[in-house]
Design a protein that fits this description.
single chain, 220 residues, alpha+beta, four-stranded antiparallel sheet, 5 helices, 12 strands, 14% helix, globular
Length: 220
């Protein structure tokens, strides 16, 4: 069994504020500070507004930035954060100044730090689909998942099941989906998901119109 990186630690005193004034806790995991909450900013870091799109038919046709609340219910925002399409991620202005949306490789690094069997250099992380051993369990929050899910939150990442959106809202409370900044094709990009019934982490690609959660990172 591999020893987890000694630089992985919680940080109760380090926080970051977005342009809307929302304050997020952070954790130092490997060589990066990670937000330990899903982003919920209504504006880019240059002050320009991100459109909030509730209408389903409009969301499906978008090829520009947008966000929404899960089920279009603002009451989910404080806990689960917002869902953003990838065009918002690709703006380069979504995270607070000095922070960025993690790349596909950044996610591989945190997966390798979290997993007790496979480190970040293992070829298993370059595969698509469910990979690893127990990284998913160790990244999940210990609360706010559906009954029966046992996250241990060993690194302080506190992953939450924010669900997703495309043709409908789906899986809120049972699965979480996060964008990477890495494009896969003209119409798709890489993402990660934690599914309630698995202790692994899924890596795959989805259409850029999907609504997923976002975490931000910066170098330590």
């Amino acid at each position: 069994m591999l020893t987890i990186n000694s630089q992985c630690k919680r940080s109760e005193n380090n926080t970051i504020k977005d342009i809307d004034g929302n304050i997020y806790s952070t954790a130092l995991i490997g060589d990066y500070w990670w937000m330990t909450e899903n982003l919920k900013s209504t504006r880019f870091n240059d002050g320009s507004n991100i459109p909030c799109v509730k209408d389903q038919s409009i969301w499906l046709r978008l090829d520009s930035s947008a966000y929404c609340y899960y089920q279009n219910n603002v009451n989910y925002a404080d806990t689960l954060g917002f869902l953003y399409n990838w065009y918002t991620v690709n703006s380069g202005k979504l995270c607070p100044t000095g922070w960025r949306v993690p790349s596909d490789n950044d996610w591989i690094l945190i997966e390798g730090n979290a997993d007790t069997k496979f480190n970040a250099n293992d070829s298993i992380w370059s595969q698509l689909g469910l990979r690893g051993f127990d990284a998913g369990k160790r990244l999940k929050s210990v609360k706010d998942w559906r009954k029966g899910v046992t996250g241990t939150d060993d690194l302080g990442f506190s992953a939450l099941p924010g669900g997703e959106r495309l043709s409908r809202f789906y899986a809120g409370g049972s699965s979480g989906f996060w964008w990477t900044s890495t494009e896969a094709s003209a119409s798709s990009a890489y993402y990660r998901s934690l599914i309630y019934s698995f202790e692994l982490v899924a890596r795959d690609t989805h259409p850029k119109r999907m609504g997923f959660s976002v975490r931000c990172i910066k170098n330590k």
